[in-house]
Amino acid sequence: MTELLTTKQLQEILQVDRTTIYRMAEAGRIPAIKVGNQWRFPRHQIEAWLWQQQPQAATPVAAPFPLQEDSADLPPNALSRAFPLECVQLIQDTFADLLGVMMVITDLDGNMITQPSNEAGLFTATETSPNAHQRCLEHWISMAGDPRLQPGFQRSHLGLLCARGLIRVGHEIKAMLVVGGIAPEDWPPSDEEIEAIAQFLQIEPDLIRDHVDEVHRADHQRMQEILPYVQRMADVFSYIATDRSKLLQRLDKIAELATW
Questions:
Q1: What is the pLDDT of residues 64-108, one digit of tens each?
Q2: Mind listing the pLDDT tens digit for each residue in 6-21?
Q3: What would the pLDDT profile of 164-221 be if each residue is shown by its tens digit?
């Protein structure tokens, strides 16, 4: 005999009110049958209907970078599960190219969730050093801990300018969008400053000198145009991650339902 769900059980699965379910049933938008004066919902048909509501996967696009989901460096809390990474990476790549800056999404411990987009050559070159990478991680952690909610440009471990927008998943801040790789007005640094940066990062000064011009450029007016978009772009990723999390919660409920 077909198992039937009650309206209350379906409310818990769909996270909608009773009236919405009644309207969907009456309009034939959801599998339902009348038992007396009450709506009932065949469990197996509801499961199939829920699966059909999932966004259809896009045609895979060959990625020129290793996806973070396959990486041993995946954050321990698996925050990346909240992001459809191929989609988010493509959106981030587009934003970075349009604004002419470097972008990456990290968790609040500085671990990368996406791969950097539109990398500054200086950043790429110095990241080959474990010490420089650790300094970068420390700087991202510091940015995450900044008590200011609104983005503002600050100097990175390389002396370049960067800002961060906060990414919420549901009601909690879980990640951030880092925008940077921008040369300040007094760039390039003097020989003394290059020596100081190299000592701080424990790398050879010539590594910096060889790539010192491989940075993004923006005058003061352009930077003021970019800054308001930092949080707006982070908000886009917040909506994506929140919707994804809700979908995963629904799928978890379907899995629980299937074990009844």
A1: 333 333 333 334 445 667 788 888 899 999 999 999 999 999 999
A2: 888 888 887 778 888 8
A3: 999 988 888 999 999 999 999 999 999 999 999 999 999 999 999 999 999 999 999 9
Please tell me what DSSP assigns to residue 252.
H
73 contacts: CB under 8 Å, gap ≥ 6: 111, 112
| CATH C-level class of 68-246 | alpha beta
Q: What is the pLDDT of residue 217?
A: 96
Helix (H) or strand (E) segment spanning residue 159: none
Residues 6 or more apart from 207 whose CB is under 8 A from it?
125, 126, 129, 198
- Token code pair at residue 142: 């510091």
Please tell me the predicted confidence (pLDDT) of residue 67.
Answer: 34
Q: What is the DSSP string of 115-181?
A: --BS--HHHHHHTTSHHHHHHHHHHHHHHHT-S-SS---EE-TTS-EEEEEEEEETTEEEEEEEEEE
Retrieve residue 93's tokens: 């790549």
Edge-to-edge order in the sheet of strand 172-182: 102-107, 172-182, 161-169, 154-155
Among 32, 29, 50, residue whose Cα is nearest residue 41: 32
Q: Which of 237, 251, 256, 231 is nearest to 82 (CA)?
A: 237
Residues in the chain: 260
- Cis bond before residue 130 (omega within 30° of 0): no
Ordered by start, the domain boundaries in the chain are: 4-53, 68-246
